[in-house]
Design goal:
The protein is mainly alpha-helical. It has 15 helices and two strands.
Length: 291
């Protein structure tokens, strides 16, 4: 049986929700998903257990769901994950374990867990480094783990030209294309950092919380505005209202919620609050996006 791919619009909507909920930059989360899976929610690595939109391996996913699952309405999953005799997290029931791991392929769950994980790493990195974390810093934590990222960033600050492969031999062996150039020479710490920054694009440097009304929020709000550009699509409006009137109402409501660019964060957050107006606004967006 052929499985229909999950639409890019649905994936971007899930990422916008995760960004609004956690304050992690929308552009960063989108860039990370593009870099990890090409926005393919069903992506599966051929050389590891990595799967889903953000390519979490089994052990990392169990750890994140154990920590943040209950707050995301996944208490059943968080409660099922327990430390084993060796200290590693495990799930006693095989079917439940499979169901928890399969959540990596749900864009909404995967995006939220990725954002929560990034928020944890952001707090830890900023405490250690004594500066604001960039999107590239967060990706290093995703790529090398928090401890590895801390070591990488500290070493790069001291000596940007140092060979990354000599400091991270295991990671270099598993990711030769990143740590070595086409001629077999080793790449420096700054080379690899720049490589990931280029791949992340606009998400590399923007790491402002949604509450500030900048960065992620303006991008997420732009996505919502784009979703309201319904063109000739059929809109079910109710009460005999025309589609054009519905769109005019939605645009007016977005303007009322956001006001201007400086209030973009408030607009992005407001869309997810369960008021009659925002519930209707979300419906119109989902209607356009095939939700």
């Amino acid at each position: 049986m052929t499985v229909n791919p999950i639409s890019t619009n649905r994936i971007q909507w899930a990422i916008a929700q995760a960004s609004s909920r956690t304050g992690i930059d929308f552009d960063y989360l989108l860039g990370q998903a593009k870099l990890e899976s090409g926005l393919n929610a069903n992506a599966k690595a051929g050389t590891s257990s990595a799967s889903g939109l953000y390519q979490f391996i089994d052990s990392s996913w169990l750890s994140i769901v154990k920590k943040h699952g209950s707050d995301a309405g996944l208490g059943w999953a968080a409660n099922a994950i327990q430390p084993g005799a060796n200290g590693k997290l495990t799930v006693a029931d095989g079917a439940t374990r499979s169901a928890i791991l399969a959540l990596r392929n749900d864009p909404q769950v995967a995006s939220l867990m990725a954002a929560e994980h990034a928020a944890d790493n952001k707090t830890a990195l900023e405490s250690t480094l004594g500066r604001a974390a960039t999107g590239t810093d967060l990706y290093m934590a995703h790529f090398l783990g928090l401890g590895g990222a801390t070591k990488f960033l500290s070493a790069m600050q001291a000596n940007p030209a140092a060979s990354a492969a000599s400091l991270f031999p295991a990671a270099a062996a598993a990711n030769s294309g990143i740590f070595y150039n086409a001629n077999g020479g080793t790449r420096s710490l700054s080379d690899i950092y720049q490589h990931f920054g280029d791949k992340l694009g606009s998400g590399a440097g923007n790491m402002l919380a949604a509450a500030t009304g900048a960065g992620a929020s303006s991008s997420a709000t732009a996505l919502m505005a784009q979703a309201l550009s319904m063109g000739t699509s059929t809109v079910v409006t109710g009460n005999g209202e025309s589609a054009s009137d519905a769109i005019a109402w939605a645009q007016s409501t977005m303007g009322h919620l956001g006001g201007n660019a400086g209030n973009a964060g408030r607009a992005a957050a407001s869309v997810f609050r369960p008021t009659p107006d925002t519930a209707r606004l979300a419906y119109l967006m989902l209607a356009r996006m095939g939700g």
